[in-house]
Amino acid sequence: MSRIYLSLGTNLGDRHANLEHAIDALREGTGVSSDIEMARGILITHISPLYQTAPWGVTDQPDFLNLCIAAKTDLSPHDLLACLKTIETELGRETAVRWGPRLIDIDILFYDDLIMQNDRLTIPHVSIVDRAFVLAPLADIAPDFIHPQTNQSIKIMLDKLDQTAVTKLPHPFFADHTRIMGIINATPDSFSGDGLDGNIAAAVAQAIQFAADGADILDIGAESTRPGSRPITADEEIARLIPVITAVRAATDLPISVDSYRAPVAEAALNAGADWVNDVWGLRMDDGMAALVARAGCPVVLMHNRSQPKEVAQEAALGGRYVGSTYDNLLADVKCELGKSVTLALAAGVKKEQIILDPGIGFGKTVAQNLELLNRLPEIKAMGYPILLGTSRKSFIGYTLDLPPDERVEGTAATVAIGIERGADIIRVHDVKAMARVAKMTDAIVKR
After folding, report:
1. Between 20 and 30 A from 278 (CA), which of 18, 217, 307, 356?
2. How many folded domains does the chain comprise?
């Protein structure tokens, strides 16, 4: 398959929705001509942050929102162009003045190292070297890509341009609806009973089902973090994890998050096709993790964690819970320690818009502390970052309702609804279909 880079722009109507619809069309194959089925033709691998840019060419028009996409395709350049034009038409684009307002604009920037020019198509895209609004988002996902004509990297070309009219925006795709992160456990000992123990076929089947059930992101981990779990080595983690990520990446284009706190594991996962890093120790366990995330330019989840094995109490039916966790001031301490993780990230060169915070429900907190933290989630939200909430089937639900993990779906639903109302942007869940419905209904109430 060929590596391609696309540019998307819009300045009419609901600009965020226009971009989301275009990305969905690329992913789902909604724009299908008579002889081209895009679902088999384009695999999105990376999406840049969003940029707001002053109009270019015709200046008397609204500002644009722009982003870039990296993808793989088995379509020829002209078939790819036909697909993109079909999407533009189906989304409602009409013939416009050159460089004038437009509902959606999707351009091919690069197609491998191809250089071509004819009446229908020019690759690389003409004048890209002069356009900061294209190079800025492209530099976020492919800074070292070499322009086959200038022989310069994207970053070098961008650094030569005036970027004052180009503004990066924080996490554009969280405001309108809650994102669903589906949990895939490549472990033999998951607390929730869904560990796949390296069964690649089962992991792929679960990923495909999660996509059908409404997942936006897949979170794949290979080391159990349940209270009282046994740590494994990085080599064991890589051996379990990488075959699963590789297979899932080939089966779906949903973003993949790697659930690991070890930099070598995360690096191997990113190289195998993962898109996010979900660090349950908030960059504090491995000194190399922050630098890795900065180099990768990927989203990173920084979780609060005070897990101590000596504070774990076990009960056969309900599992492990923390009983001895002490805080001077629960919310103040959690915010302070999350702030330290953020500082580590920023100092290493991680950009603010890459960061997502997780309050760490269930990690080094008693049942009562988990309930309080969930209720006071707006105090974490006030730190200014998107929030990931992971409450699914956890023991604080089990101990509250006196139920084992496989009977906690209603309790999880209550935490999801309250969490969204309190400001959660992403929910990390085992029961994707049910929780996607809970999230959709809650969004209809609180995110109108």
Report:
1. 18
2. 2
